[in-house]
Amino acid sequence: MIKVIIERTIALGLEPNYKEAVRDTLRAVLDAPGYISSESLNNVSKKKHKVIITRWVSLSAWDAWHASDERKMAISSISPLLEEPEKITVLEAG
Q1: Which of 70, 61, 57 is nearest to 26 (CA)?
Q2: Is the dihedral of CA 67, 72, 75, 79 positive or negative?
Q3: Would you say the C-alpha torsion 86, 90, 70, 18 has a positive or negative sign?
Q4: For residue 39, how far is the Cα from the chain centroid?
Q5: Strand pairing report for 87-92 and 2-9
Q6: What is the DSSP letter of 37?
Q7: What pLDDT is stored for residue 63 in this prediction?
Q8: Are 2 and 49 spatial neighbours (Cβ–Cβ below 8 Å)?
Q9: pLDDT per position as a tens digit, 35-83
Q10: What is the pLDDT of residue 84?
């Protein structure tokens, strides 16, 4: 199992749009092979900083989702809302 941490900084005033876009992404990922779960977190001291932690059965499952047309479509509605590109970190238990 792996965990993927996705960090995003939302442009000022676009938080409501971001919430809707993330819901659309969640709907899309639910059917992705190898997807286990996710949680969306808000940084309490930096309101524009959002963190999503997803769990996958394997790195190959994540890679397939990351490269999929479904994710590209979902991210296309998120990318314009970001101040900078999202940061993705893939972790596994040591």
Answers
A1: 70
A2: positive
A3: negative
A4: 9
A5: antiparallel
A6: E
A7: 97
A8: no
A9: 999 999 999 999 899 999 999 999 999 999 999 999 999 899 999 999 9
A10: 94
